[in-house]
Design brief:
Chain lengths: 410, 152
């Protein structure tokens, strides 16, 4: 009898200390809601194909972070607290202004270090640069202006976020969603507003996947049939010398002006130089494949692990999601409107549809321009013309990130 | 009620540091535009410089190739006249092929080989090689774009 009672007691103890019991405690239902949300994002990534390479790790990180008692949620937001957590097992609670003690650093805390220290996003940019062909941009440098125009969405959203009561740093982090660049958004947010990182990353990647849905109505509303039917001339051939010197020159020009953008722009151009030099094929391939894949896994899962119930289930999340949509929409509109200006100044030689490709979701935004152009004229091939603004938008969003970090960074 | 809401919103709006907002927005737009305009200027100029250098290098190479072709054609004519007699000599003198400047000997050899392969014999004479404009659409570029957009 005593043995049976002992066994029963042990079973009850295990259940009382399990995550299942936590759901029934005060506030425990929020973890359950977050688990359901992680299932939803996994469905988006797997079934619907929404940016799966990052959505699936982020969603699974969200799932792990919200399993009670597993110690898989990221427990800090700044480097000082990381050191306190690892060395002394405590973090500073800014809200209640007390030390939370008795903690221990978990797997995600160490993986998240790469995000917090600004390591992962530049490494992903290294991989992106080694996969990007800047020839359409070199052949037609005027595309840079369309990449710049599409970044207006960032600054418009900054105003909107400020009006909704976010601090300047939070507004800057939310606004960078409009750059449509995941690594840039994560890089900026991890410095300006790390508490919002998970929400902003989920919003940024969700909207990037929705580019084929968000952009076409705006493009059609702002252009006429005649403008959409413009057939653009052939791009000039680009020499190997130009392709080799381009990344070196962009790095020097941009990083000298904005050192805070140096990490992102520098690694992007370094990756591109590895590809174009023709002498470093092995490491270019490693950057495109092994390095990119490993960093993507660690970045995605650690960013997802910051989405604890306390940080995600707030009114701020709804505001951030709405502002993200505004950022994308305004970026698309400003790119198309600049495209119309170029159409007027070039007397009809530039198709305004390529302006929307300045929203740097590479290459999805360029393909949207191609598809919309083909709807008006099936023999119209805008893809390579749209790739110019598309890749210049990557540079433009990195420059905008540098501006925000310079003006708002502590 | 509306006056209350107005006073609340006025207090809320006045709490915002509009100078800082304006600084970030205007500086951000100006700097992003400015940097990318600088890049446009640099790469426009750079593109023209590189194109100019490469064109002059190509022209120098084409002139060298043309000189070589002229020499070899003249040598074959002279050899035929020197070795053959009468009608046979006249029959074997082939008029030099007219090759457009900029077309190298290797390209002429490749064209000759392609025609030989498609015709199945080398019983022909190349009289001239000239560039033909492909019109507004390069067929190779068209094929590449079609390949890129197939899955979409």
């Amino acid at each position: 009898m005593e043995i049976l009672q002992g066994v029963w007691g042990a079973i009850v103890d295990i259940f009382a200390n399990s995550g299942y019991a936590f759901f029934f405690t005060d506030g425990g239902y929020k973890n359950l809601i977050m688990l359901l949300m992680s299932f939803f994002f996994l469905w988006l990534g797997i079934k619907k194909g929404f940016e799966p390479l990052l959505m699936i790790p982020i969603a699974f990180g969200m799932l792990l972070a919200n399993i009670p008692g597993a110690n898989l949620a990221v427990q800090y937001h700044d480097m000082q607290n990381f050191i306190e957590l690892v060395v002394r097992g405590r973090v500073w609670d800014e809200v209640n202004e007390v030390w939370i003690t008795g903690l221990s650093a978990g797997l995600m805390d160490f993986l998240y270090f790469g995000v917090k220290a600004g390591i992962y996003p530049p490494l992903i940019f290294l991989g992106i640069g080694s996969m990007t062909d800047f020839s359409p941009l070199i052949a037609n440098p005027k595309s840079f202006i369309l990449g710049a125009a599409a970044q207006f969405g960032i600054f418009f959203t900054y105003i909107g976020a400020t009006l909704l009561g976010f601090t300047p740093q939070e507004s800057g982090a939310i606004a960078i969603i409009g750059g449509a660049d995941g690594p840039t958004a994560i890089f900026v947010t991890s410095i300006l507003a790390p508490a919002l990182l998970g929400t902003i990353a989920v919003a940024a990647y969700s909207y990037m996947a929705l580019v084929p849905v968000i952009q076409p109505p705006i493009m059609r509303a702002l252009t006429t049939k005649k403008e959409r039917s413009v057939v653009m001339g052939n791009l000039r051939p680009v020499s190997k010398l130009e392709k080799i010197l381009f990344p070196i020159m962009v790095t020097v020009i941009v990083a000298l002006l904005l050192p805070d953008a140096g990490a992102l722009v520098g690694m992007l151009m370094f990756g591109n130089l590895l590809k174009e030099s023709g002498r470093t094929e092995r490491i270019a391939k490693a950057a495109q494949n092994e390095l990119m894949n490993i960093v993507t896994i660690m970045l995605g899962v650690s960013v997802g692990a910051t989405t604890s119930a306390q940080s995600f289930l707030t009114l701020k999340t709804i505001s951030i999601v709405a502002l993200g949509l505004v950022a994308f929409a305004v970026g698309t509109a400003s790119g198309v409107l600049f495209g119309k200006l170029m159409y007027i100044f070039t007397k009809g030689k530039v198709n305004p549809l390529i302006g929307s490709a300045g929203v740097s979701a590479v290459p999805m935004a360029a393909r949207v321009s191609q598809k919309e152009g083909q709807k008006e004229n099936p023999s119209n091939f805008l893809l390579m013309h749209a790739m110019g603004p598309n890749v210049s938008g990557v540079i433009g969003s990195a420059v905008a990130a540098g501006v925000l970090l310079t003006l708002l960074g502590k | 009620m509306s006056q209350f809401m107005l006073s609340v919103s006025n207090n809320y709006l006045s709490d915002i540091d509009w100078a800082q907002v304006a600084t970030v927005v205007i500086a951000g737009v100006v700097i992003v535009l400015g940097v990318l305009l600088v890049l446009i200027g640099v790469f426009n100029g750079f593109g023209k410089l590189v194109s100019g250098l490469e064109n002059s290098a190509k022209n120098r190479k084409a002139r060298k190739e043309a000189k070589k072709m002229d020499k070899s054609n003249a040598a074959s004519d002279i050899a035929v006249v020197g070795n053959e007699t009468g009608k046979k000599a006249v029959d074997t003198i082939k008029p030099a092929a007219v090759i457009e400047q900029g077309v190298s000997g290797e390209v002429v050899a490749a064209i000759t080989a392609a025609i030989t392969a498609s015709e199945g014999s080398s019983n022909f004479v190349i009289r001239s090689v000239k560039r033909k404009e492909a019109g507004s659409r390069n067929p190779w570029a068209r094929a590449a774009v079609a390949d890129n957009t197939r899955a979409f």
